[in-house]
Design a protein that fits this description.
The protein is an alpha/beta fold. The chain has a single domain, classed as Transcription Regulator spoIIAA (2-Layer Sandwich). It is built from 4 helices and 6 strands; from the N terminus they run E-E-E-H-H-E-H-E-H-E. A hairpin with a 4-residue loop joins strand 2 and strand 3. The longest helix is centred in the middle third of the chain and has 17 residues. It starts with a strand and ends in a 6-residue tail after the last strand.
Length: 127
Amino acid sequence: MIRSKSDSNTPYVKLDMERGNLTIIGRSYPEHPELFYDPILLEIPKYKEQLKISKMTLRIALEIMNSGSTKYIFRLVKDLYELSMELEILWYYELDDESMLEEGLIYKDSFPDSKFKLIAVEDLSKI
């Protein structure tokens, strides 16, 4: 399991492959996203055989993300999409945040065989 605390530039992340969950919540605009996201990306292939026969749930609730984060989060989703028997993506966004809604729609179109849900909430910090 990987768990990281959030700070002003990085989200809270919890990767629990035993239960089939990846949660990313907060703000994602680190100066060097590779330092933050590479350990998570390296962990996923270790569970390749387990993912082939199990469901994975990905919860994303970001207030903001920079282009570097977008690249790494997309790669995370892509890796899980390609390895999982079934992938459910829960994309949370604040009601008045059109940019994160649009980003969610891009992900939804990019991974058409996933169970993708766009979930509007008033305040992401209450998830």
